[in-house]
Structures are given as structure tokens and as C-alpha cells.
Amino acid sequence: MPAEPQLAPLLRKLRSITRLSARDEDAILRLPAHPRVFTAGQDLVSEGDRSTQCWLVLKGWVQRYKLLSGGRRQISAFHVAGDMADLPSFHLPVMDHGLGAVTTVTAASIPHEALRDLLERHPQLNAPFWRDTLVDAAIFREWVANVGRRPAYQRLAHLFCELYLKQAAVGLAHDHRCPMPMTQVDLADATGLTSVHINRTLRDLRRDRLIDLRSRMLVIHDWTRLVEAAEFDPTYLQLDGRLAA
Questions:
Q1: Mean pLDDT in each 10-residue stretch from start to end of the chain (245 residues)?
Q2: Rounded to an integer, what distance in angstroms lies between the CA atom of residue 27 and that of residue 76?
Q3: Terminus-to-terminus CA distance in the chain, angstroms?
Q4: Nearest 5°: CA angle at 237, between 232 and 239?
């Protein structure tokens, strides 16, 4: 069996939110990409850095975060394989946040200059990359609502629904099971809760037979009830309707 093209995860991600022609896909696969391995806890890029490339996650999990005084941290996104985690740096090169590896991560750097050349030679590809940026913004708005207004039980259920569908869209989740490698501290920093509150909320979700979370794997026992508990509407993810069902 021939080896999968290095940028195949990017194609899977873009296919989940838009349509690409064979010519478009071939042009994307020709982008120069330089893979690098990061260990858990290591930054791909830090706040204040001036970026000359975008990082595409090929394997593992990346978090977008802000550090506050006293070491406090707010996570504002989790990225999985296929996500170009810092696409806005193409136009806003000075980073106003950090990208850190949650797990061991393989990521490919794509030079801004190469991406600019691609979009000049294939202007029809501006739309898919712009759409990806808009979906990322929609996810951010949903996270603001999650942290600001939803109670803890609904907040965590909503996050699990989103991360399951994001992974299902690129072939990383099946049969209501998916990787979920974050610690309780990570989940707390993503939801604006304490780790003690996360522990208690996970216990409640397990008690109600909605999910189980162990050995870095999320098992959803009742998708319909989890969606109802979260008041989850997947429209903001802009996925194929079959994935959002």
C-alpha cells in the first residue's frame, strides 16, 4: 500500500467543511511542509513570537492558550490532526497567544511565502482557507458562550460533543469513541472551572450513564442524551450533515 501523502490530514479537514476539486487537492499536496516532533508541554510557537510559517497538526493534540499573571492559563481551543492551528498568523504574524503540545505532536511547518504563492496561483483556494478561518472563529464564539453562561455539567458535555464531532470529521473517532488525552487540569483551563469541579462533573456525567473517560479515551454511552444535556447544536462546525446527526 503506498504511503499516505504528508498533507493528507489537511485535505481531510478541508473536505469536512467544503468541496475541493482534484486539481485543488493536488495543488495543496504540493505545498512544502517540514515535519517536526514536539513533546507534551512544549510550545510550537509562543505568545509574542513573529511567525513566518503556519503549523499543521499531523498527529497528536495541540492547545491554543493565554498565560495570565501567577501562571494562570486559559485554553481557547484544542486542535487535532488536520487543523492548521495558527492560520491567522498568515496575516497577523505576531502571535498574541501560544500553541502548546498536549501530547507528543507531529506538526508540519508550511512557510507563509509558499502559502501566499499557492493562493496567488490558485485563487479559488482562497475560499476554502477563508472558510476554515471562519469556522475557527465560530468555534471560538461557542467557547465564549460555554465559559461565560453554561453551567458546569452542560459546559463539559458541550465540549465533549464538539471534540467528538471534530475527530469524527477527519476519521479519528468512530462508534461514539474517541481519544481524549487532556488532564483534568487541561479540561479545567478550557472550561473556566477548577480541577475539583471537573472531577465532580465527570462523576455526574458517569453517574447519568452519558459518558466514561478513562485511559485517555472518551466513550459516549448515549449520544442523544449527551446532546440534549449540552443543548448542543453542531451548526457552527459547518460539517457534513451526516456527521452532525
A1: 85 95 97 97 97 97 95 96 96 96 98 97 97 96 97 98 97 97 98 98 98 97 98 93 51
A2: 31
A3: 33
A4: 110
